[in-house]
Amino acid sequence: MDLTRDQLLELYYYMHLTRHFEERVERLYRQGKVVGGVFTGRGQEAVPVGTCYPLRKTDFIAPVHRDLGAFLVKRMSPGVLMAQIMGKADGPSKGKDSWTHCGDMELGIIASTSMLGSSIPVACGVALAEQMRGKDTVVVSYFGEGTTARGDFHEALNFAGVHQLPVVFVCENNQYAYSTPTSKEMPVADVADRGPAYGMPGFAIDGNDVRLVVETMCEAIERARQGDGPTLLECKTYRYSGHSAHDTDGYRPPQEVEEWHGRDPIHRLHDDLVMQGLLTDDEAAKILERVQSDVKQAVEFATNSPYPRGEEAIKGVYSSA
Amino acid sequence: MEVTYLQAIHDALQEEMRRDESVFLLGEDIGVLGGAFKVTEGLYEEFGEQRVLDTPISELAIVGLAVGASLIGMRPVAEMQFMDFISCGFDQIVNTAATMRYRYGGEVGVPMVIRGPCGGGVHGGLFHSQMTEAWFYTVPGLKVVLPATAYDAKGLLKAAIRDDDPVLYYEHKYLYRRIKEDLPEDDFVVPIGQATVRREGTDLTIVTYSAMVHQALAAADRLADEGISAEVVDLRSVRPLDKETVLASFKKTNKALIAYEASKMGGVGAEVAAIIAEEAFEYLDGPIVRLACAESPVPFSAPMEKFYLPNVDDIVAAATQLDAY
After folding, report:
1. Which positions 300-319 of A are in contact with B (Cβ < 8 Å)?
2. Is B10 a catalytic residue?
3. A105–B103 CB contact, under 8 Å
């Protein structure tokens, strides 16, 4: 897929939006305006943004806690997403669940739980239903490399392989599951190596090269859409912050963190675009302005959104209540 | 038409699949084999391999797939080959299926059913005889039903399939071919959350459900010979639990014996006892008695399983003692 200049600038915008949105959330957290778990994916933006970007409106994603960018690319309003994070009534879960544990089936976003891996069979269920209906819908299931140690991962990919489901399994390998490095998490070097064991091709790519991510994703999407089955796409990347806002992150060598900063996905795209004469400094500044304005608006919306009333806790448990 | 409990379940599945093409089945050995107990016999031939899906041994995936499919409007009926194995899919039931609607702000739901054979008395041992409803009936977001008759087996399964929330449907394997009833030809549904009085009485209320209903009725016959009039209430649903019917009966008889084939501690019987004590205290003429299984896993060897399971004699003895209070 040859990306047009407009498309490249959209990718640039979304990655910046993701990063600024998350930085703002971190600030709100330090101010006590966001509580609970905050799991930023700073440094990983190219993966959720790049993999979600080529999808249709009618395709589905099953993102997890570090895929905030995918929510934005799937057109969840930044204000609504911010309200969700602040526990306000205007969030998609109406305050029922935290962080990005929410969904919107109209936008094609499947809600996940905190039980890592549980979203994978659910994503496959959506794919199965669409396959049964004869549609060419594609479902993208996101998870980290740590999650691949869970039983749900095995059962879901096994099933998807048997039924050649139209799913793209996107593994964001950021080298650590909380404090656990991949050397303790798995006996193989690449999660992608597991693909063929489940009857699907596996690819391990540089997840910080957003253009490569988009290109590889397009191939996987096409494969699924044509009825040629699932793909396991492992994107190597790195998170700059700890696992969560309260993780002091003492388990990673500072040189390693610095090294990955040198491969920053947003700076790389910026430098590529500038070098190719596709982006001027002025244009970059304008996009940044737009991002800052969008985040500001999102915070305003979320701040003005009311908290749900306490009694709302018992609503929505069943269809009739 | 005379139909066994098992046949009633089969017919409910078949009729609902004919009625609504969004209904499909998934589970281990349900298709080509027709199910370990033949509950789904013939359905694969009628509806094809997509709608009667033979899955790998993957309880977590079976449940998760059902959740996903139901989120976009399908009505899956997932089978656990034995309700003992439901523990293998536990997380997907209590944390995914039960919470989806809640976390979607009530807008999107999970209209799925998980069904499977439960209960002992068939030399099944620890892992093919369990009653696991106590693990789930405490979870907001789930519904749990246990039919005791062929009529209820059919009507409750239809209700479960048509319900917009996740329903766990426990069919007692001991009843599969042992009970036969005349069922109506026309479509009928038994509402979830409604208990029923199986036998009227005045001296004490026996609250029960699933296969134990039959022992309770047999016990009531014997009690009647001794001049004790026992009312038998069949809960049918344990979540939601019809406390109105239970309390109405209790207020009439003033004594309650709760008989259930499950671990006594923290089981449904404990909950019913608490409800009665809390909401009908003034009507108590005796202690609320629970009769349940022995405190052990389900043993295999025949004399031990016999010891483990409550039987008609046990119910008669407990009821006689309660009546004398």
Report:
1. 315-319
2. no
3. no
Q: B96, B114 in Cβ contact below 8 A?
A: no
* The model's pTM: 0.97
Mutate to test the interface with B, among A155, A162, A312 (most CBs of B within 10 A): A155
Domain ranges of chain A: 5-299
**CA proximity to A235, closest of A202, A272, A269, A259:** A202
Q: Are B260 and B212 in contact (CB under 8 A)?
A: yes
User: What architecture (CATH level 2) is domain A5-299?
Assistant: 3-Layer(aba) Sandwich (3.40)
A285 Cβ contact list (under 8 Å, min separation 6): none
- pLDDT tens-digit map of B166-180: 999 999 999 999 999
Question: Distance (Å) from the C-alpha of residue A68 to the closest C-alpha of chain B?
Answer: 17
Give yes or no for residue A215 having a pLDDT over 90: yes
Question: Domains plus CATH for chain B?
Answer: 2-182 (3.40.50.970), 196-324 (3.40.50.920)
What is the pLDDT, as a whole number, of residue B1? Answer: 81
For A229-251, the pLDDT digits (tens) are 999 999 999 999 999 998 989 99
Task: Please compute Rg for chain A using Cα positions.
Answer: 19
Rounded to the nearest 5 percent, the helix, strand and coil shares of chain B are 40, 20, 40
pLDDT in tens, B240-267: 999 999 999 999 999 999 999 999 999 9
Q: Check if A124 contacts B (Cβ < 8 Å).
A: yes
